[in-house]
Amino acid sequence: MQLRILISSACFFLLTAPHTTLARQAKPQEPSSQEKPKDEKKPAPEEKSVQTKHTVRIGGQEVRYTATAGTMLLKLEDGTPKASVFYVAYTKDDVSDLTQRPITFTFNGGPGSASIWLHLGAFGPRRVQMGDAGALLPPPYKLVDNESSILDITDLVFIDPVSTGYSRAVPGETPKQFHGIQEDVQSVADFIRLYATRNRRWTSPKFLAGESYGTTRAAGLSGYLQQRYGMYLNGIILISTILNFQTADFNTGNDLPYPLYLPSYTAIAWYHKKLAADLQADLPKAVEESKKFALGEYSDALLNGDSLSTERRAEIAQKLSRLTGLSAEFIERNNLRIELSRFDKELLRSEGRTVGRLDGRFVGIDSDSGGAGPDYDPSLAAIVGPYTSAFHEYVRGDLKFESDLFYEFLTGKVSPWSFQPFENRYVDVAETLRSAMTQNQFLRVFVAKGYYDCATPFFAAEYTINHLGLDPSLRGHITGQYYEAGHMMYVHQPSLAKLKQDVAAFLKASMAPAK
């Protein structure tokens, strides 16, 4: 039997329940052979787009821009349409020289997620006003100007991969042909090529920005765009990174995730005030101690397996207790290996509460105190409602784009997802990124890491980057920053402001002439 590794827990992914039909129409009578209409050719799908003019204040400066919401058909060379891809583009007005104006192609992850989150949370000119952990706002929700948008520095194109958002395979085409690592990269790359061609952006500085599985996609695109189209990028922004799925698969025989998740557990325990006083006094200090222990004593203990002495096992359990806020007894019962769902359940179990997977600052109400995992992810539950309701009003109201399709913000319809060519092994696209950076020695990468992210933990991202095998002359081309929030760090206003500052500096540095 062929084994395929699918790490849904590592990505921003939600398997949706099957759709139910609320009402069934009466089945029409079958016409007689004489009455049957002749086969009619289905009308060819059409592209449509709507442009609107807007103004936003960013950093105290007025920015006039054009928003284009539309669909673009991906076709074979013979003109056969395959898929309709929905996008929203924002371009700054009164730009005389497009060769000096950067453009950033942006997407979220899943697989199965639309670009709504980065669009209305981080980079777009409008953002959702939803409050934050411990101070959420009630519905109805609204949009406000995003003073931390990066539109003042770069044009933006938010892409919904096929089967997400309003993007669909055209009638007669099988959606699953787009549902896989390679197929996804190829279709998104085709969209980027076509957009750059039609809008004369081949000579503009070009960037990618991806979140979660979107970082997997971005790494794949870095190689495919170079090799297939000769399109060289200036930079890639990786937000909540997952390139090597072995770092996030809590699977029997794979001990790697346990030390890599530990610093995130420490940060979350710190946030909920579950650490000893000396650790509680300083978050970065607590995280550094956790990292050191994870790479040293903890990894050594895990490598020793059952040969670890009883005394040493108890000692490691005590040190893990200090760094996680969990009891040493609980840790020993779990063989020194704390799987994510158990941590989320156990940290606040005595209070009848759980902590979020996407963002450990969020707290959920637990109905089953005896279960092994949380009932739901409170961080995802807090975020979905504000974003989806705000988007549906925004797309028809401000952007003037009308569609009766359901906007698939986070869908399970992309399952099963093909992980070829990574059959019988863990998905790992880090080598693709290394190769792209080696061949395009101007390519730079920025890694944004949330302290409280347990979907794509920051230490796992650092482990992956530190194992790229980059030539020493290129290692300085990868930079990164921490944020005191989770997977979607931009829901935390101070982190959003910091993200803008850091990304702006990265964009400018990536376009600076080589010394």
Question: How do you describe this structure in short?
Answer:
The protein is 33% helix and 18% strand. It has 13 helices and 16 strands.
Plain-language structure description:
By secondary structure, this protein is of the alpha/beta class. Helix content is 33%, strand content 18%. It is built from 13 helices and 16 strands. Strands 1, 2, 3, 4, 9, 10, 11, 12, 15 and 16 form a 10-stranded mixed sheet that branches. Strand 1 and strand 2 (61-75) form a beta hairpin. Helix 2 (181-198) crosses helix 3 (213-229). The longest helix is centred in the middle third of the chain and has 22 residues, at 283-304. It is globular, with a radius of gyration of 24 Å. The termini are far apart. The model is unreliable at 1-39 (pLDDT under 50).
Mean pLDDT: 91
The end-to-end distance, rounded to whole angstroms, is: 54 Å
- Strand percentage lies at 15-25%
Q: What portion of residues is helical?
A: 25-40%
Count of DSSP H/I helices: 13
Query: Mind describing the biggest β-sheet?
Result: 10 strands, mixed
User: What's the number of extended β-strand segments?
Assistant: 16
The computed structural class is alpha/beta
Spell out the helices and strands N to C: EEEEHEEEEEEHEHEHHHHHHEEHHEHEH
